Amino acid sequence: MSALHKSVVSIKNNNERHCRKGSDPLIQTARGKLQTRRSKLNDQIDKELRMRNGAENLYRATGNKKLREQVAVELSFFNSNIQLLKEELAELNSSVHIYQHDNCSKCVPMIPLGLKETTEVDCSVPIQDFLLEHYSVDPALFQSELQELHLIRQAIRTPIRDTAGLDLLIEYFNQLYYIEKRFFPTDKHLSIHYHWYDSLSGVPSTQKAIGFEKGCVLYNIGALYTQLACKQDRTIISGLEGSIKYFVKAAGAFLHLECHFRNAPSMDMQPQTLAMLAALMQAQAQECVLEKFIMKTVQDGIIANTKIAQEAALVSEKYRETHRLMISELVKSYIPFSWISMAQTKHYFHKGLAHYFIATGLLDQKDSDDIEKLKTMFQGLLIGAEGRDENNGLKLPTNSEDRKILGKAHLKESVLGHEEALRVHDLCKQLRKVDHFGDILQKTHERALKKFSALEEEDDFSDLVTVARIQGKSENDVVSVTPEFSKVKVTDIFKRLGPISIFNAKNEWSPPRLVSLNRDQGQGFGFSVRGDSPVIIADIEPDSVAGRSSMKVGDFVVGVSDTDTMWAKHEEVVQFVRKAGSQLNIRLITPLDKNFLEPGQNINATISLPSTPVKSRSRHNSTSSDRPNSKSNRLSAPWIFMKKDSKRSEDDPPEDIDFENISR
Length: 664
Prior knowledge:
This protein is of the alpha+beta class. It has 18 helices and nine strands. A hairpin with a 2-residue loop joins strand 6 (556-560) and strand 7 (563-564).
C-alpha cells in the first residue's frame, strides 16, 4: 500500500470515527477558511483604528500648520482604508445567496444567519477531577462517558444544514442540562474554557461558564432554522409553509435566548441584537404568509384585493419595526449595512404593494360599485378614516368618478413606495449585486407606474386626494414558537452516577462507606427503608445489629454486597437483602447538606415508590409476636409494613420496608 493511499485511508477512518449523525467534519474546511479571513480583516481594522487614533491625537496636540496638513492627509487615508475593510467584511457576512433554494431567483430574497464557530474543547481532565473529588469515584470507570461527551461536542461544531443537523444541536443542548447539573456547582466554575466566535464579526470570546456554551448552541439552533427556512422552495405552497414554520421557530429560539441568557460576551447574543433578529425572522415569516396568500387567493373582487393589501401592509409594518431596531445605537454599527437596507427596502416595497392592490380593487374589479363591499373595505382599512369629512378627500366613493380619484391616489402612493424601495436598494453596494431582487423591484415599479400613467393620460386632475396609511391585518399573524427541545430524547451520559435529583453538583454527601451487619439465626437486622432509586434508611432500632453499626437514619443505600443499587427499585433492594442471609454488606452515603426524610424535602418527588401491589406473609406463618398489641409489632414480610389480618387496598402506596425480623 502506498504512503498516499495509507494517508487517505487514515483520514477516512478518522472522519468516520468522529462523524455522528447530523454532522459532517468536511464542512469545517470551508468554514475555517471563512473564519480565518474574518479574523484577518478584523485584525487589519483594529490596526487601522489604532493608527487613526494616534494621528488624531497628534493633530490635536501639534501647533505646526504644515504638520497638521500632513496628518490630515494621513487621516483621510486611514478612514478610506477602514471603510474598504469594513465593506469587505460586510460582504463576507451579508451574502444572501448562501442557503437559498435554486428557485430563489423567482422570489424576493431572505436573510439567513451563519452559525457561530467554536474550537475543540477538552473537558475530560476537569470532569475527572470533579468525579474524584465530589463523587468519590474512580474516573477511569467513566472513560466511555467522557469519550461520548467529546464526540458529541466535536459533532456540533460541523452540523449538516438539514433537520438531522438541527436534531444534533438540540440533542447536545439537552445533554448540557445534565452536564451542568452533574459537574457545575453554582459557587464555582470548572477550568473548562469554552471558546466561540461571533457569528458576524468573527471576534473570539472565551468563558468558563457553561451558560455561555448553552447560549451559543441555542444561537446556532436559531441560525440553522433560518438556513432551513431559506432553503425551502417558495414557488410552491408546501415550500412557503416550511419557510413559515422555520422562521417562527428561529424567532422563538432568539427570544428564548434573550430571556434566559444574560451578560453574553459576544455582540451577536446581546439583548438588542437578539430582539432585532427575532423581529427580522417574524417579518420574513409574515412575508412568506403574504406570498402564500397571493398564491392561494383568486384575485377577483374588491374584498379579495383589500385582504391582500392588508397582508402586504402588515409585512411593511413588521419590516419598519425591524428597521427601527436595526438602526439603534448598538446594533447599527454591528450588523451589515445590507441588512439595514434590505429591511428598509422591503418596508417601502410592501407598502407600495398594499396601495397597488387597493387601487386595483377600486379601479379594475367588477364589484367595485357595491356600496356594502366598499363599506366593508373602509372599516378598519384606512387608519383614522372614520370621522373625516369631505375636505380631507377620504369620503366613501359612491360613484365611478370618486373611485377613480381614490384609486389614482393609491396608485400614486404605490409608485412613490416602489421608487423609494429602488432608491434605498441602489444605495447599497451589496444589494445591487443581487440582480434578481433589483429586477423584482423594477418590475413592480413599472407595473404601478404604467397603470398610473394611463390614468394620467385619460384624466386631467390637478389635485389628488390624500390617502391614509393602510392598516395591516392578516388571517395568520405569525408569532414566535419556542423550539420543542423535548422532541429530541436524550439519555444522561453520566447516568451511572445515580439519579440526578440526588447526585448532582449542588448536593454534598459523605464518601461511600461499607457497613457489615451480622445477625444470629431468627434475629432481624433492625432497620427499615423507604422509596427507591436510591433506597433511603427510614428507621433504625436502637438495640439491634443496625443500631450498633455506623448506619444512620437518612443514609442512602448505594450498594448491597457487590451490586450497585443507586438506580435499584424498592423491591430489588429487598431481594438483595434477603439473599444476603445472616451477613449483609451494605454501602451507604450520608447527605451532608439536607435531610431527605424531612417533609419539606418532598421525598416522593425525588424517590419514587413502587407502583405494583405488594403482598403480606400468609396467615399460617404468623406468630404471637404478630398480634396488634404486641410491643414488637413489625412483620417479617419482606414487602410491606402492616398489621396482621389488616385489609389493604391495592391502590394504597406501600409503606416502609422493615428488615428487623427478616430471618430467611
